[in-house]
Amino acid sequence: MSYTIKNVAIAGAGGNLGKIVTPTFVSSGKFNVRVLTRQGSSTAGLPEGVEVVEVDYSSPESLQFALAGQDAVISLITTPAAMTQLSLIDAAIAAGVRRFIPSEFGSNLANPKTRANPVFKHKVATEDYLIEKAQSTTLTYTFFYNNAFLDWALRANFIVDFASPRPQVLDSGDTPFSATTMQSVADGLVGVLLHPAETANRAVYVHDLVTSQNRLLALAREARPDRHWEPESVALDDLVAVAEKRMAQGIFDFETIGPFLKRAIADPECGGVFTGKTDNELLGLKGKTDEFVLELLKDHLK
Ligand SMILES: NC(=O)c1ccc[n+]([C@@H]2O[C@H](COP(=O)([O-])OP(=O)(O)OC[C@H]3O[C@@H](n4cnc5c(N)ncnc54)[C@H](OP(=O)(O)O)[C@@H]3O)[C@@H](O)[C@H]2O)c1
């Protein structure tokens, strides 16, 4: 059955990704946007005139009220609160919402090795819940995979630590991986909701380009010829082994989680290269070139 999506509820709109997705939806002029936010959260920075509804994620009535009349929910909820999405999904079904996009926006969870990665346990549980519900209700889902956030990863010195003269590279440093700016994620989400039939009950894959740590280092040297980086090779398996020990000790900080994320992004067996299978064309994404990355690096390294 064909349907159009007009009313879009965005949960987690004030976060890192939400700050880009929300204005993109508003300025597209194609949707009515309603933001769901917890009581006491700041709404500063949300686009002017956007409808804001306070919700209590522990109250089904509150969530159902907030989702009344909505055609789609985009969840941009922070990863530690991922399981909150189950009550949001229940409320979406009760309110007659047609499409739910859970908070994923990263690794290829269709890859068995990535699906078993412990840091994605709650994202996988959310996917499984949606798959089950889509079989018995009118709710549909789209899973959005974009591998690494290019701009976020550069800013956080996550993929290459440009703040260090001896940044780590994983194994040879040449392993290719897909990367996507948060703006392209936002544009791709608009594309998903403009193509509800083509994106129903499946994962979409997008990327701006395929790069590698060594390629990023080469571009960084071009951006800042006055600076010097001497990369240090580390075995990804060794990094993950240390992280596994920390996890077994109950330590769940970023030092533990980071190597698991790096595995999902850049281990050749984890499905992090999307060449040949992207939905870029359907969703209206044109991809980016190294020149674009060079400009990002010039900005980051100034
Ligand atoms: N691929 C990548 O490289 C990459 C990098 C970073 C993030 N991501 C993914 O992008 C998605 C969004 O991440 P983000 O960094 O934008 O998130 P974030 O900034 O940490 O948080 C987003 C929003 O979550 C809401 N939130 C916080 N605690 C909550 C709770 N206990 N219950 C319900 N809502 C809560 C808040 O909204 P309110 O206060 O308004 O309720 C917050 O603004 C995640 O799935 C994350 O894994 C991917």
Molecular structure report:
- With 302 residues, the chain is an alpha/beta fold.
- The chain folds into two domains: 166 residues, NAD(P)-binding Rossmann-like Domain (Rossmann fold), CATH 3.40.50; 116 residues, UDP-galactose 4-epimerase, domain 1.
- It is built from twelve helices and twelve strands.
- The longest helix is centred in the middle third of the chain and has 16 residues.
- The mean pLDDT is 97.
- The structure holds NADP nicotinamide-adenine-dinucleotide phosphate (NAP).
Spell out the key features of this protein.
NADP; 40% helix; UDP-galactose 4-epimerase, domain 1; 302 residues; alpha/beta; Rossmann fold; three-stranded mixed β-sheet; NAD(P)-bd_dom_sf; binds NADP nicotinamide-adenine-dinucleotide phosphate
